[in-house]
Design goal:
The complex is a heterodimer of chains A (158) and B (457). In chain A, the strands form 3 sheets. Chain A has a 4-stranded antiparallel sheet with strand order 3-10-8-5, with no helix packed on it. In chain A, strands 7-6-4-9 form a 4-stranded antiparallel sheet, with no helix packed on it. Chain A contains 2 helices and 10 strands, in the order αββαββββββββ. The longest helix of chain A has 13 residues. Chain A is 12% helix and 32% strand. Chain A is mainly beta and 158 residues long. With 457 residues, chain B is an alpha+beta fold. Chain B has 3 domains: 100 residues, Rossmann fold (3-Layer(aba) Sandwich), CATH 3.40.50.20; 68 residues, Dna Ligase, domain 1 (2-Layer Sandwich), CATH 3.30.1490.20; 238 residues, ATP-grasp fold, B domain (D-amino Acid Aminotransferase, Chain A, domain 1, 2-Layer Sandwich), CATH 3.30.470. Helices cover 33% and strands 27% of the residues of chain B. Chain B has 15 helices and 23 strands. In chain B, strands 14-13-10-11-12-15-22-20 form an 8-stranded antiparallel sheet, sandwiched between helices. Chain B has a 5-stranded parallel sheet with strand order 3-2-1-4-5, sandwiched between helices. In chain B, helix 3 packs parallel to helix 4, helix 4 packs antiparallel against helix 5 and helix 12 packs antiparallel against helix 13. The relative contact order of chain B is 0.12. The chains are: A mainly beta (158), B alpha+beta (457). At the A-B interface, loops of A face strand 3 and helix 3 of B.
């Protein structure tokens, strides 16, 4: 049998929810070694990174099974990009305080801004857990699809 | 209003075509490009490029609100929609009007009037222009009675269609129910309008169309006709101006009919009125295209008029700068559409990386293209790579120049339909002029597919 990316994601979740720190699995010559807290390369999306692991390799450390401590190096800055073209607003209404400032803690579901497309307000969520490090997106400016709105220093701490 | 900055809501060769005229006029260009087109040739040539969304047209080039938002954000005076995509979407024209952005094209009401093919047929009849015998049908029973009256073969057409989309050919009554059901479901899916109508299929017909320009206040001029009979599955492949072999009175009647049709609409901007010319030289109104067309360069070549510049002038409120007596036609021009398609595999699209390319040059040769070495032909968009246009003082010279141009064209990395063009240009029937729309099918030695589906606009 072979392991699909989905299988590995499932196994990873089982490990995350368990009290174990390490898991070694051998099936038909395939070795899978998962370790909690191993350093991981910066990945744009935690879940897609897991899903992208081919079944035949032994990952050194899976994104999504990360250190409990915030990772301090600059390599873990994640861009939050505009999901669409429109006018970017940092605050819910003019005159109100911005959704987030540099230093704000964000969860994946935290609203970080609004993109208006012809009077239709679309909320933008952080999509990542961490601390806002930079806000390149200018309030009231036209942002293109894929333009970086803010950068978040990632943490996995709840 | 003076137009100083234009948003181009399109891609490919037409984007470059529009940029070229804007440069001549000193107009700034802002290109609305999808993620896949960020590094395209048009993106490099435009003064500014704004990424409007992912590669998939439904997420970028077809988003009306996003395009208008981009126009407002970039503070442009006008939007040029090119052809295809949003060019004939009344919603875009309407939203532009609401936000004070000039739409380089007709009004929303004019787009709607010609988009509904039954309404357009009635308008033609009201203008005294013949239409192909046919009628609207809303059930199999009514279809059978209409079919009995007008005779077969027949075409089942979508009311909301056009350009060959949603069209089915029917040889006899037995096939009618199946073809109607198929056409209606396809039309519903493609145009959100499942209504269909029947027309007699005109065998041996030629596709002749007349280029018009209107000021939007009732004045319309024509820039002569084009013959676009070299088609495969309703997709034009070779076009020329003027149409060969027409008597002068017939040519004039076609041109006058087109002007009359557009005048009744008080048509604004550039448009094309399409006709079918049968073997007895009777002509019938087919439809009007409310946009600049792919094949407009052959008209530009013989008239010397920059149609995009006239479109911009009309949209900017300058009206018609040319009178009918200013239009003179000189010589003959032919256009070949070079597509990334494999003629040996039933013209299957062949997207990929263009590793090397060499476009032809020479007297009377014009090439409109967005493809250079290193360009990608994306599977997301149509396969048109270039239009090669050859102009000469007469048809034999234009033909000769085109043959040399096609022979001199080199494209590596993707498969193209260049061998098909060489075949057409060398074919005695084409060289003699006045082929009909069955020509390509006969040339390729394929018998007409009985119920054939057009797949692309």
């Amino acid at each position: 049998m072979t392991l699909t990316a989905r299988d590995i994601a499932e196994i990873t979740r089982l490990l995350e929810d368990s009290s174990f720190d390490e898991l070694q699995l051998e099936i038909d010559g395939l070795k899978l070694h998962l370790k909690r807290g191993a350093p991981s390369p910066a990945r744009p999306e935690q879940h897609s990174a897991v899903a992208a692991v081919p079944a035949s390799v032994v990952p050194a450390g899976l994104a999504g099974v990360q250190a409990d401590e915030p990772v301090a190096d600059a390599g873990d800055l994640q861009d939050v990009d505009a999901p669409m073209l429109g006018t970017f607003y940092r605050a819910p209404k003019p005159g109100e305080p911005p959704f987030v400032e540099v230093g704000s803690r964000v969860e994946p579901e935290t609203i970080v801004g609004i993109i208006e497309v012809m009077k239709l307000m679309n909320t933008v969520r952080a999509g990542v857990r961490g601390t806002v490090a930079e806000i390149p997106g200018r309030d009231g400016a036209l942002v293109e699809y894929g333009e970086t709105l803010l950068r978040v220093r990632r943490t996995t701490e709840p | 209003m003076s137009i100083r900055r234009i948003l181009i809501a399109n891609r490919g060769e037409i984007a470059i075509r529009i940029i070229r005229t804007c440069r001549e006029l000193g107009i700034e260009t802002v290109l609305a490009a999808s993620d896949a087109d960020r590094d395209s040739l048009p993106a490099r040539l435009a003064d500014r490029t704004i990424c409007i969304g992912p590669a998939r047209p439904a997420d970028s080039y077809l988003k009306v609100e996003t395009i208008v938002q981009a126009a407002l954000g970039a503070r442009v005076d006008a939007i040029h929609p090119g052809y295809g995509f949003l060019s004939e979407r009344p919603e875009l024209a309407r939203l532009c009007a609401r936000h004070g952005v000039a739409f380089i094209g007709p009004t929303a009401a004019q787009i709607e009037a010609v988009a509904d093919k039954l309404q357009a047929r009635s308008a033609a009849q009201a203008a005294g222009i013949p239409v192909v015998p046919g009628a609207a049908v809303d059930s199999i029973d009514s279809a059978v009675s209409v079919a009995r009256r007008i005779g077969s073969p027949l075409l089942v057409k979508a009311v909301g269609g056009g350009g060959g989309r949603g069209m089915k050919r029917v040889e006899g009554l037995a096939e009618l129910p199946h073809a109607m059901a198929l056409a209606a479901s396809e039309a519903g899916a493609a145009f959100g309008d499942a209504r269909v109508y029947l027309e007699r299929f005109v065998t041996g017909g030629r596709h002749i169309e007349v280029q018009v320009l209107g000021d939007g206040a009732g004045r319309v001029i024509h820039l002569g006709e084009r013959d676009c009979s070299v088609q495969r599955r309703y997709q034009k492949l070779v076009e020329e101006a003027p149409a060969p072999g027409l008597s002068e009175p017939l040519r004039q009647r076609l041109q006058e009919s087109a002007v009359r049709f557009a005048e009744r609409l008080s048509y604004r901007g550039a448009g094309t009125v399409e006709f079918l010319l049968d073997e007895q030289n009777a002509f019938y109104f087919l439809e009007m295209n409310a946009r600049i067309q792919v094949e407009h360069p052959v008209t530009e070549a013989v008239t010397g008029v920059d149609l995009v510049a006239e479109q911009i002038a009309i949209a900017g409120g300058a009206g018609l700068r040319l009178g009918q007596s200013d239009i003179h036609r000189r010589g003959c021009a032919i256009e070949c559409r070079v597509n990334a398609e494999d003629p040996s595999r039933d013209f299957c699209p062949s997207p990929g990386l263009v590793t090397d390319v060499s476009w032809p040059t020479g007297p009377g040769i014009r090439v409109d293209t967005h493809i250079a070495a290193g360009s990608h032909v994306s599977p997301y968009y149509d396969s048109l790579m270039a239009k090669v246009i050859a102009h000469g003082p007469d048809r034999p010279t234009a033909l000769q120049r085109m043959q040399e141009a096609i022979a001199a064209t080199r494209v590596t990395g993707v498969t193209t339909n260049l061998p098909f063009h060489a075949l057409v240009l060398g074919e005695p029937r084409f060289r003699a002029g006045a082929v009909d729309t069955e020509f390509v099918t006969q040339l390729l030695g394929v018998s007409a597919v009985r119920v054939e589906s057009a797949t692309r606009g």
